[in-house]
Structure formats: C-alpha cells, structure tokens
Amino acid sequence: SKRAELSGRQIGRFGEGFKIASLVALRDFGWDIVMRSRNWKIHVTEAEDMIDGVQVKVLAYETEETEFFPGAVLMLGNVNGDQAAVFDEALGDFYYKENPNFGEIIAEREDYAIYYPQKGGKFEKDGALYAGRLRRAPLSAPLIICSHTYRPDRDGRERDEFRNRQVRECVSEVIAKISPDTAGKILRTIENSWSRAGGKSKFFFQWGDMVPDLIWRMFQSKREVECFKQEYGERVIADFPTERYGNRRKLALVWLH
Fold first, then answer.
1. What sign does the dihedral 223-112-104-127 (CA atoms) show?
2. How would you label 55-94 residue by residue, b for 16+ Cβ within 10 Å and e otherwise?
3. Given a cut of 60, is residue 218 above it in pLDDT?
4. In this predicted model, what pLDDT tens digit does every residue of 14-26 receive, in sequence order?
5. For residues 114 and 178, is the Cβ–Cβ distance under 8 A?
C-alpha cells in the first residue's frame, strides 16, 4: 500500500503499522482480524509461499468489495478478556472524541481540541498532549491538548515520547490559535505556574514560558481580563519578597496592567 497524499492529520506515516500489528496478532495470538472502510473489506489470513526454495507461510489479505461505508471499522475475533482489556487501554493513546479519558471540552476547532481530563482517569493529574492523533507526552497539568496538525521534524516508527522542545512547539502552536476565553480557562487550570513560587519544577513540562502567550491571548478580550482581575486580583498583584519567591510573582504585577 502507499499514501499518495499526506495531509498531516493521519496517524500512519510509514505504511507498515497495520501489517506488523496484524502479523503479530495472527501469528502469536490467533486473532481473527477484519477491517472495513469505504468500499472494501479485508480479512487477515496466511498463505503458502516459496522463498529461496523453502516453503513458508506469509501474511495475506482476503479482499472483498462492499457497498460504500463512510469511515472505518476494525473487528477482532478470538480475543480473550485480558487481551481485550489491554486493547481498550491502548485505545486511550489515540485521539477520538469518545475517548473515555477526555472530560469536559474546553475548546474545539478543525485543527485542535482541548479538554479537561476525566475525573478518576489516568490523565487526571498530569494531563496529556496528543499530536497527529496520538498521545505523545504528559503536560504536568490537568489539561488534555490535542493538535491535529503538528508534526515534529523527525519522528521514528516507535513514536517515542516528545522531548520538552517538541512539547513546547506543539503547545505554542495551539495557544496561538485559541480564544481569550480559552486562554483564561487554561490560566486558571495552571494557576500553580504563575501564582506560586518555588524551586525548580520536578515536572516534565514547565508552563511558565507559556504564561505570557496565554496572557496575551486573554488580553484580546477586555471582558475576560476584567473577570480574571476580579477573580485573581489579590493573588496577581501581591508583591512578595524576591528573595523568598523569586521573580514569578513580581512578573505578575505587569501582566494585567
């Protein structure tokens, strides 16, 4: 198979993921695998072949033309309960609106979506960053940010967790597009990043560098700024000693003035 056009929104990139997953599932676990999309359906099976005079079994597809079906469906058979649980857990690493780890939606546009994590879910504390419809990193805050367009300059087949620079690039790309209302909600969620001081963060991703951009986005709405000042005024303008709290709280003096 090949991909004639890549819009940046597909999860796949190398054209081998489904083949390798099907090979392992069939060979090692005996799963029955059927995939249906648009006007075709395939059933994963095996076939006899000769390689260098040696008879071997190879992965094969039985294909069937069907009536047009909008979307795609993967059907798995011969799967036990433990395997199904692992499969369900893995689905959480993919972006889809019905993801049970996603809670209340904060904002949604064609190229991004932002959610609060589901209470009691695995992202409730550290959140998650999705890019290219795959989970790529924690966010050290109870936020789920999904960019449908960001692609790192280099990305291997294993889809390793993003480095801090890649997280920063991806989050910045989304923040540049959000509304003042959304910026205000994010600032409220990451209050610890701008209203408290302390030592170096122990978290993977530090939000401090994102705060000026969020303030700028929120500043585009006088109403949102006034609401924020009324809600957080005392905490924002409090002048705590630099020697104890560092510069974070002092910087807050100029944000909303």
1. negative
2. eeeebbbeeeeeeeeeeeeeeeeebeeeeeeeeeeeebee
3. yes
4. 467 788 888 899 9
5. yes
Q: Which residue has the tokens 């990305």?
A: 155
DSSP 170: H
Q: Give the global pTM.
A: 0.74
User: What are the structure tokens assigned to 192, written together?
Assistant: 């610890």
Contacts of 121 (CB under 8 A, 6+ apart): 100, 101, 103
Residue 23 burial (10 A CB sphere; 0-12, 13-18, 19+)? middle
Q: Strand 144-147 relative to strand 128-131: parallel, antiparallel, unpaired?
A: parallel
Using CA atoms, how far apart are residues 239 and 220, in angstroms rounded to an integer?
26
Nearest CA-CA partner of 184 in 139, 149, 137, 236:
236
Written as six digits, the tokens of 204 are 């993977």
Q: Of the candidates 90, 88, 112, 113, which has an alpha carbon nearest to the alpha carbon of residue 102?
A: 113
C-alpha angle 125/131/135, rounded to 5°? 45
Query: Is there a contact between 250 and 242 (Cβ–Cβ < 8 Å)?
Result: yes
Helix axes 211-218, 180-189, angle to 10 degrees: 140
Let me know how long the chain is.
257
Alpha helices in the chain (DSSP H): 17-29, 81-91, 164-175, 180-189, 191-195, 211-218, 222-237, 242-245, 248-255
